[in-house]
Amino acid sequence: MPTEFTVRGSHTAFQRPERGTAQVTLAFEGPAMQPVYDRVVRDLEAVKTSIQALHDPEHGPVTWWSTQHVRTWAQRPWNQSGKQLPLVHHASVGVQVKFRDFGVLATWVGQHVAATQGFRLDGVVWALTESNRHDLERAVRTRAVQAAVRRAQEYAEALGLGPVRPVAVADAGMLSTGIAPVGGGSAPFMRMAAAKDAGGGAELELAPEDIEVSAEIDARFVAE
User: Fold this and answer.
1) Reduced to 3 states, what is the DSSP secondary structure of residue 134?
2) Where are the beta strands (DSSP E) in the chain?
3) Residue 218 in this model has a pLDDT that exceeds 90
4) I want to staple 12 with a disulfide (CB 3.0 to 4.6 A). Which of 174, 176, 214, 223 is the partner?
5) Model-level pTM greater than 0.70?
6) Using DSSP, how many helices (H) and how many strands (E) does the chain show?
7) Which of 56, 127, 65, 52 is nearest to 94 (CA)?
8) CB 136 within 8 A of CB 11
């Protein structure tokens, strides 16, 4: 009778990011709606102008960008004594900008943090290009399968059996009834720090985290 082995193979690879997408919010608040709205629109135009000067999908530092519609709302806050205060009006808009040059990304963010009052950097999403991520995922899956083969063969040799033969391969968890595939983690974000330059001013430093790509597979083998 053949002996059956069910094993899990895994592999993880890390690669430096190739793109960084800045997640930005422009927001203001005040006692009247029109000045608040006008200020956000004015700052949005300034930000768009700075992006357009850098945007070139083929060779420029900015490969893609988008803006949302300006959102407005109002609320009447309460003070610590429980008294309702006058109405406060809000306006905000989100902007996303994808950079291939991380030095230009840091400079662009730093300039707007200093010069654009309503500018807020919510985070940076680091990524690979679609083509390179696909290649890396394929390589990682291949290494995960190879790891499963090695593990199964080690078990077989420990039992004095011959070469293993695969009978099933699946994403992790799918060889067991009712178990969902094991998924990947969340997208990597940035670490950010302010450093002092030679002139004593603040200089923004972005520390992109390596992209982690992992694969786990389950495989079933038999050996005589």
Assistant:
1) helix
2) 3-15, 19-30, 62-67, 71-75, 88-99, 119-127, 165-171, 190-196, 202-208, 211-223
3) yes
4) 214
5) yes
6) 3, 10
7) 65
8) no
Cβ partners under 8 Å of residue 201, min gap 6: none
Distance (Å, rounded) from C-alpha 144 to C-alpha 126? 24
Confidence at residue 201, expressed as pLDDT on a 0 to 100 scale: 39
DSSP assignment, residue 2? Answer: P
Quote the CA–CA distance of 213 and 61 in Å, as a whole number.
Answer: 25
Structure tokens at 126: 């680091």
For 31, 161, 174, the CA distances from 183, given in Å and listed in that order, are 47, 34, 12
pLDDT one-digit tens code per residue, 134-182: 999 999 999 999 999 999 999 999 999 999 999 999 999 898 754 444 5
In the numeric block, the tokens 């083929």 are attached to: 58
**Residue 180 DSSP one-character state:** P
The residues, ordered by sequence, that sit 6+ positions from 175 with a Cβ below 8 Å of its Cβ are: 6, 168, 218, 219, 220
C-alpha gyration radius of the chain: 26
Helix, strand, coil distribution of the chain in percent, nearest 5: 30, 40, 30
SS3 category, 187: coil
Which DSSP symbol is given to 43?
H
How far is residue 56 from each of residues 43, 72, 158, 175, 206, measured CA to CA in Å? 22, 32, 59, 47, 22
CA gap 126, 87 in Å, rounded: 39
Whole-number Å distance between alpha carbons of 48 and 119: 12
As a whole number of angstroms, the distance between CA 224 and CA 156 comes to 9
